[in-house]
Amino acid sequence: MNYTLDNNHALVHSIETFGTLDGPGIRFVLFLQGCNLSCKYCHNKDTCSFQAGSVKSLDELLEKMLKFKTYFKTSTGGVTVSGGEPLLQANFVTKLFKKLKENNIHTTLDTNGNLPIKDNIKELLKYTDLVLLDIKHINNEKCIELTGHSNKNTLDFAKFLSDNNIPVWIRQVLIPEITDDTNDLKLLKEFISTLKNVEKIEILPYHKMGAYKWEQLCLEYPLKNIREITKEDVAKAKKILGILEI
């Protein structure tokens, strides 16, 4: 399903003009509004609803992005589209990425990959230089408990990226008692080893900085009794996953 008003407009949550965490170099990060998952740890709960955000045109957003072209070039950066979940507005993102490629700007898609791989998504990936893929949980039952959805679409998406040689950074949010189980991390490593396109594996330490957003929406934060992750937890996970410290 495509949630844009039309292919030339998007439902936008916010913009970050000098991002450094969502892909290589300096990034213009476009956060789209609306998500298909219900992650218990979501730190951007305000991006989930389709009843919020503002409508922005392709021309308006592209004009803003092109102003930073010099910074992209000098830092080997570009544009990242995140969310929410950008695949829900795949038709718009495709048109945007086409325009960016015409301007020799690097494109990155930050996604949970948890949608069927239909033709519009395949089309979008033709213009995508890098995918940041958030594997919510390698264990399907635990994934359903954590997000309300199976991980099948995400793992299928990862395999599709591999089969089509589309570079990917695998991301795993490390949550005590939920995603830090040794056996689960070993299974994740085993799955990643079947992919031929993985450029990087990133551990994202769980924190509660977004809990206040749940309160603002009059929602109870589901993981309020879960502690934040420690450096030791991260080091252990990196060792299991074979992530080399630089």
Task: Say what oligomer this is.
Answer: single chain
Total of DSSP H or I helical runs spanning 4+ residues: 9
Strand-pairing-aware structural class: alpha/beta
Mean pLDDT: 95
Shape: globular
What gap, in angstroms, lies between the N and C termini?
41 Å
Order of helices and strands: EEEHHEHEHEHHEHEHH
Helix percentage: 25-40%
Q: Which sequence of strands runs across the widest sheet?
A: 3-1-2-4-5-6-7-8
How large is the share of residues in beta strands? 15-25%
Q: Summarize the main sheet.
A: 8 strands, mixed
Low-confidence stretches: none
Q: Calculate Rg over CA atoms.
A: 17 Å
Write up this protein.
With 246 residues, the protein is α/β, with parallel strands linked by helices. The chain is 34% helix and 21% strand. The protein is built from nine helices and eight strands. It has an eight-stranded mixed beta sheet. Helix 7 links the parallel strand 7 and strand 8. Helix 3 (90-102) runs parallel beside helix 4 (119-125). The longest helix is centred in the middle third of the chain and has 13 residues, at 90-102. The protein is globular and about 45 Å long. The chain starts with 8 loop residues before the first strand and ends in a 5-residue tail after the last helix. The model has no long low-confidence stretch (mean pLDDT 95).
Write the layout of secondary structure elements.
Blueprint: E1 9-19, E2 27-32, E3 54-57, H1 58-66, H2 69-75, E4 78-82, H3 90-102, E5 106-111, H4 119-125, E6 130-134, H5 140-147, H6 152-163, E7 168-174, H7 182-192, E8 198-205, H8 211-216, H9 231-241
Helix pairs in contact: 3-4
